[in-house]
Task: inverse folding
């Protein structure tokens, strides 16, 4: 029997109401220990799925903690599939804290992060990718990431994975039968053709999912974008322009920004984590030097680099060195201050730079920003319009499992083609099955499951 757990499920802080969720066999009994009706009567049961007004009492002092609405939901048709009681009290710190204390006093255990959802998963009401989607939904910061999470919660990925696994299972069964009926260990020709032809579309489906992950990961995690360049080119001005607020200090003194300024931003549905950095130059100033070091570190970690140049100054050798570091990266080259007489010679830029990568702006005149947004959008979607739909793979874990499944099938098909003994083929198909299974939480180790749920928030 699972023990009975409770947690505050609403965010902490002052709020209209707050909810405590209790789950487990003893939920109702424990909740009733601290509950009485508005007339001060104790009760022994509550109607299933009915919100009831009453008082939450401290059993020790006999004093009221708060008034509340209480709802009992009978197993198995609940979030966790266990008996659940929810206590809706006033929001704020004290009511919620004291109700939790009163419950713990009755022998209820504090839920671990994600434990409610873990129970929903362990009971089979959700599969692992759906459980992960619950957290994504809570964490989503743009409509697109919200949509993607909702799609996954509704089972878009699980559905596809389950269908592919069924198809693979059929193929494995067909191979099995084929061996049983043939004299040798070989697979007969008809079965070979059939298995081969049916495997290819499965591989195509997997590839499609893998392709969607490029955008999907950015949609879920955000695109870490760092603005770099020499001092005074307008990096902080760009940060402010994109945020549409005066966040970073802008002056005409080179070396104004000394620390990293990080802000989140929703750009056409893409969550950007935007970082403005200290202008990179050789400097004796200790603080600025540290800022420059940080800028260089961030540069390494970023998903996207916006390298900013100044149209009114010549390209320096230091800038060329920075540009060359950007070569293999997702990068945009931004030439700012195009309102000033042009001094920068574009032919002095490294040759590898693609003309699509260069954007010309004048932040003073607010021109060129739309083109910049568009270029960013194209980079994320890789020019694929259909990537904007909500069906995409958003987790690295899923992407990696799909890649492994794909590789195994490729091996399997190769083994088939060269008429290898069937055991070889089967090993590959089984591996693909297992990899796909890992996405939905079948054939995964317990510590992976623990790890995934430990990243959830309390009360979920
Ligand atoms: N008060 C409250 N609001 C909430 C939740 C909750 O647990 N409590 N949720 C979550 O945290 C979300 C809703 N998700 C839920 C998903 C499934 C079930 C559930 O009881 N499912 C049952 C029965 C469904 C039915 O009525 O047919 C089932 O699937 O068997 C409940 C909530 C968002 N809002
Ligand atoms: N003429 C002109 N001036 C600009 C433009 N964009 C920014 N500036 C000015 O350039 C100066 C430097 O801008 P910042 O945004 O502080 O430059 P930065 O790259 O953040 O500089 P550091 O933090 O010192 O590295 C300010 O005086 C801005 O007003 C532009 O498009 N045209
Ligand atoms: Mg600055």
Result:
């Amino acid at each position: 029997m699972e023990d009975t757990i409770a947690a505050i499920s609403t965010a902490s802080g002052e709020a209209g109401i707050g909810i405590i969720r209790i789950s487990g066999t003893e939920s109702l009994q424990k909740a009733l220990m601290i509950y009485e009706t508005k007339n001060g009567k104790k009760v022994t049961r509550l109607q299933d799925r009915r919100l009831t007004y009453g008082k939450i009492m401290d059993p020790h002092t006999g004093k009221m903690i708060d008034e509340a609405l209480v709802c009992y939901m009978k197993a198995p048709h609940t979030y966790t599939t266990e008996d659940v009681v929810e206590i809706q009290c006033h929001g704020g710190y004290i009511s919620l804290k004291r109700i939790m204390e009163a419950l713990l006093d009755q022998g209820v255990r504090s839920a671990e992060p994600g434990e409610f959802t873990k129970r929903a998963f362990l009971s089979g009401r959700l599969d692992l990718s759906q459980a992960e989607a619950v957290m994504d939904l809570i964490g989503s910061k743009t409509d697109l990431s919200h949509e993607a999470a909702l799609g996954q919660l509704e089972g878009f990925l699980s559905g596809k994975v389950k269908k592919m696994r069924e198809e693979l299972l059929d193929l494995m069964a067909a191979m099995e039968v084929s061996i049983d009926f043939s004299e040798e260990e070989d697979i007969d020709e008809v079965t070979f053709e059939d298995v081969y032809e049916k495997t290819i579309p499965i591989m195509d489906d997997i590839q499609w999912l893998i392709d969607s992950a490029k955008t999907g990961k950015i949609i879920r995690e955000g695109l870490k974008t760092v603005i770099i360049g020499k001092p005074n080119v307008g990096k902080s001005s760009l940060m402010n322009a994109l945020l549409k607020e005066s966040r970073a200090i802008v002056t005409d003194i080179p070396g104004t920004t000394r620390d990293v300024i990080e802000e989140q931003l929703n750009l056409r549905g893409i969550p950007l984590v935007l970082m403005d950095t200290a202008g990179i130059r050789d400097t004796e100033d200790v603080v600025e030097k540290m800022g420059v070091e940080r800028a260089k570190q961030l540069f390494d970690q970023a998903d996207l680099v916006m390298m900013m140049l100044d149209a009114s100054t010549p390209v320096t050798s230091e800038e060329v060195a920075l540009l060359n570091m950007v070569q293999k990266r997702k990068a945009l080259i931004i030439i700012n201050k195009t309102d000033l007489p042009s001094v920068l010679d574009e032919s002095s830029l490294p040759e590898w730079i693609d003309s699509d990568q260069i954007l010309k702006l004048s932040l003073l005149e607010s021109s060129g920003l739309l083109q910049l947004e568009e270029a960013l959008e194209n980079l994320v979607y890789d020019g694929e319009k259909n990537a904007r739909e909500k069906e995409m793979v958003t987790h690295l874990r899923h992407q990696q499992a799909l890649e492994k499944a794909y590789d195994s099938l490729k091996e399997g098909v190769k083994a088939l083609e060269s008429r290898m003994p069937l055991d070889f083929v089967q090993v590959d198909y089984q591996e693909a099955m297992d990899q796909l299974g890992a996405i939905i939480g079948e054939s995964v180790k317990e510590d992976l499951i623990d790890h995934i749920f430990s990243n959830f928030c309390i009360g979920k």
Notes: The domain at 133-218+393-454 is CATH 1.20.120.430 (Four Helix Bundle (Hemerythrin (Met), subunit A)). The mean pLDDT is 92. The first strand starts at residue 5 and ends at 8.
